[in-house]
Design goal:
Number of strands: 27
Oligomer: single chain
Helix content: 25-40%
Shape: globular
Radius of gyration: 30 Å
Structural class: alpha/beta
Largest sheet: 6 strands, mixed
Strand content: 15-25%
């Protein structure tokens, strides 16, 4: 082949390679998507818009990102795949041009009590290496500074051949770890209230133990009586010291009961292993109530909450030990690292410096490395995950973000936009699901889904530029330039909720009077102390109902109908109309399909391979027995009713044969909070943080409460739906309730009667009240960051 021909072939090949500049999706039908097709430009920033429930996440996460991850997983061996989550192929005809997808979502970071911001981002690993190199006195390798590794001692006999015969050496080796032995690296110790464990006036056989699950009718009764350590009929109050010690503290001991080998263990070590090893939020409600009643957690007196043993704390760099360094605010820690001039560890210092600067860049400079990762909000967790990718050398990757501006002050949104553009400019494809107009404005390409939510959505309403979206007649296009105006007159307060000397976290001895019977908005940059003020000084008072975005406790069998109590009147209405028992209309009770036990899916375990989840063939995923589906109400069976969107169900139960006032009342509240697009039977574990909060709000509105506290209620809401939520908050106030909202959304601030602004900065630069007054006064003075952004928003 001649040189000219070879060159021509190479350039032709290059031109073909360069033509793969689109991600093509054809015929996507996941969830409510209606056979849609889109073409997304690579190495560009594409924003997906549309009302909540229109199908954005179904397209971005459940179709594009899911298929990319599934194909990558298939490249691993069957053994490795056995440790990975099951990923089914999404319902789509054709996908082309996919690149590796990295998902940065809002899922809260694992609430493992041993996980901190430092361990989650590798900052702790870098610091441990730094201290093992520079710390004085030198105490050992990096693991000697880890609060997750205990000090271990090993001894043994070693035989050495010295040439003139063997020599035996006895060696004892200490493997130094950093864990505090008293609290085992947890930072807190627990103390048991013995009166909550047993009733000392009763004997064991009379049921003296008040611990959940400790019934004397089952195995526990056999173990206690078979141990022979105490008299089962003697009241606990009359036990000797030895008997009480055996009951409460005895170490695991092998015993034989009725010819069976068993282990007897004292009640307290048993509780520590079975209950306290779990995250409190993951416990069943009755066990959580017992733990909260019986056990008090106090700071470990040996390590003072630092989790580290005294050896790890004795080693210092420039007068600071690793615990003191981890407790510093990240902006201060970055300065401390910058001042370390040690050529021997220059690359390590450079990497650590870059990581800490990234925290400040992304608006999280107020955190500390010892902050437990389970205490981060959804927005903070998402940005912490983002830190890992900022310095990445990877290019031509698809980054997928789920509302990255959640929990962000308008001031911080500008920073986030810059980071998204930086990621794109490195040659990556950036896909963002977003509602905020400030982030939609920076898009190279926009895909607007809708027109409505649920079954009324799932189609592409617009595809093109931001300017094209503005001119389009879609819901997003019409509302893109919506700006709430300041209220002409504000309500007057009829009392105040006094807060005095608040010092939770970074609050600096704050005194404030929160007005009642009005809409009061607490605002300020992220980390300024808003949540600290509410959680530390307001929630927990009589009549205060706190509605946050925390996970709703319930299994994958739970859904909005069961959570809100809506299913009870529906079951009764079905039972009355058909002359049968209400239990038949529950997929968790008598009406459940026998094949899948009412789950709708069957799990097949395949050893080391992935567990396969398949729709139950007998009930076709409907969860009920076929005989139950023959009973109807208003021409619909129970499975069809649970598949209805709430707006349709509200109409269905409001009139005609199916009229059920109790059900209609609950559906009315669910529509009020903007959840009309959800189906009654949608599993709770598929709801976003904002949806969970609004579901809680709809449920709590029926409760007795005088003061409602909401944390970022506009999370996940489309511009068109924010107006509806504000109308609901106004109606609550007009009915005589007090509503306190933690918010960054300028539309909420503009509608407030009173604003309390915290700041001026984050962390130790915040924690003070920088403004109290009406929105009009805040805009007029523009004395704070919030004032400047609100003034720009309302166009004054």
């Amino acid at each position: 082949m001649s040189i000219a021909t070879k060159t021509d072939t190479q350039s032709a090949a290059l031109r073909v390679a360069d033509s793969h500049d689109l991600i093509r999706v054809q015929g996507a039908r996941v969830n409510n998507l209606k056979d849609i097709s889109v073409e997304l430009p690579k190495r560009r920033l594409t924003v997906f818009t549309g009302v909540s429930g229109s199908g954005k996440s179904s397209l971005v996460f459940d179709t594009i990102a899911a298929e990319s991850q599934r194909m990558i997983n298939e490249t691993y061996s069957a053994f490795v795949q056995g440790f990975m989550p099951t990923l089914a192929r999404p319902e789509v005809d054709f996908l082309d041009g996919l690149t590796t997808a990295i998902i940065v979502d809002q899922e809260r970071m694992g609430a493992n009590p041993r996980s901190t911001v430092g361990t989650a981002t590798d900052a702790n690993a870098m610091l441990r290496i730094l201290f093992s190199r520079l710390g004085k006195p030198h105490i050992g390798p990096p693991v000697a500074y880890s609060f997750n590794i205990p000090t271990r001692t090993a001894s043994g006999i070693m035989t050495a051949d010295k040439g003139q015969g063997e020599k035996t050496i006895v060696r004892k080796v200490v493997y130094q770890g950093g864990m505090c032995p008293r609290c085992e690296g947890m930072g807190s110790v627990n103390d048991f209230d013995l009166t909550a464990l047993y009733d000392d006036t009763k004997s064991l056989s009379e049921g003296a133990l008040t611990i959940p699950g400790y019934s004397m009718d089952g195995w526990y009764g056999r173990i206690f009586s078979g141990s022979g350590y105490f008299d089962m009929d003697k009241p606990i109050g009359k036990y000797t010291k030895k008997e009480l010690h055996d009951l409460l503290y005895r170490e695991p001991t092998k015993i034989k009961v009725e010819g069976i080998n068993l282990t007897y263990e004292g009640v307290i070590p048993k509780i520590q292993k079975s209950m306290l090893a779990k995250d409190v939020d993951a416990m069943q409600p009755h066990i959580r109530a017992f733990v909260e009643r019986a056990i008090t957690f106090t700071t470990c007196p040996d390590c003072d909450g630092t989790r580290l043993g005294k050896e790890a704390r004795s080693s210092k760099i420039k007068g600071k030990d690793i615990a003191a360094v981890c407790s510093m605010q990240l902006t201060d820690l970055a300065d401390w690292v910058r001042d370390l001039d040690e050529p021997s560890v220059a690359p390590l210092l450079g990497g650590l410096q870059h990581l800490l600067d990234a925290f400040a860049e992304i608006g999280l400079g107020y955190l500390s490395l010892d902050r437990p990762s389970g205490t981060l909000s959804g927005g903070e967790a998402q940005r912490t995950k983002m830190i890992r990718h900022l310095g990445s050398s990877l290019t031509d990757v698809t980054y997928v973000f789920d509302e990255p501006t959640i929990g962000m002050h308008p001031h911080d949104i500008e920073r986030m936009n810059n980071l998204l553009l930086q990621m794109r400019d490195k040659g990556n494809t950036v896909l963002v699901v977003e509602h905020k107009p400030e982030t939609i404005a920076i898009a190279d390409h926009v895909v607007d889904l809708g027109p409505r939510a649920g079954t009324a959505g799932g189609t592409v309403c617009f595809e093109g530029t931001v300017e094209g979206l503005r001119r389009s007649d879609t819901i997003t296009g019409r509302h893109l330039d919506d700006r709430a105006s300041l209220k002409e007159s504000v309500r007057s307060s009829s009392g105040t909720l006094e807060v005095r000397g608040a010092s939770t976290h970074n609050l600096q001895d704050v005194d404030v009077d929160i007005p009642l019977t009005v809409l009061c908005v607490i605002t300020g940059v992220a980390g300024s102390g808003k949540s600290s003020l509410i959680h530390g000084s307001v929630s927990g008072r009589d009549g205060v109902v706190l509605i946050d975005q925390g996970a709703i406790r319930g299994s994958r069998r739970s859904n909005p109908a069961t959570y809100t109590g809506l299913l009870d009147p529906i079951r009764k209405a079905f039972a009355k109309a058909n002359g049968v028992k209400p239990a038949l209309f529950s997929s968790n009770s008598e009406g459940a399909c026998p094949s899948c036990n009412g789950a709708g899916v069957i799990y097949t375990e395949l050893g080391i391979m992935n567990t396969v989840e398949s729709t139950c063939e007998e009930c076709e995923g409907k969860r009920f027995q076929a005989s139950v589906l023959e009973y109807t109400l208003g021409g619909r069976n129970i499975a069809e009713v649970l598949a209805m969107p709430m707006t349709e169900a509200e109409e269905f139960f409001g009139e005609g044969e199916a009229r059920t006032p109790a059900a209609h009342k609950i559906l009315d509240r669910l529509a009020d909070v903007g959840l009309g697009y959800l189906s009654l039977g949608q599993p709770l574990n598929t709801l976003s943080g904002g949806e969970r909060q609004r579901l809680k709000l709809a449920t709590q509105m029926a409760e007795k409460g005088d003061v409602y506290v909401l944390d970022e209620p506009t999370t996940g809401l489309h511009l068109a739906d924010v107006e509806q939520l504000l109308g609901l908050l106004d109606r609550l106030v007009d009915s005589g309730k007090s509503v306190i909202v933690i918010a960054h959304h300028q539309a909420v601030m503009a509608r407030a009667d009173w604003i309390i602004d915290l700041g001026p900065g984050a962390g130790h630069d915040g924690g003070r009240i920088v403004f109290e007054g009406t929105p009009a006064d805040l805009v007029a003075t523009r004395s704070t960051l919030t004032g400047e952004h609100l003034a720009a928003y309302v166009g004054t």
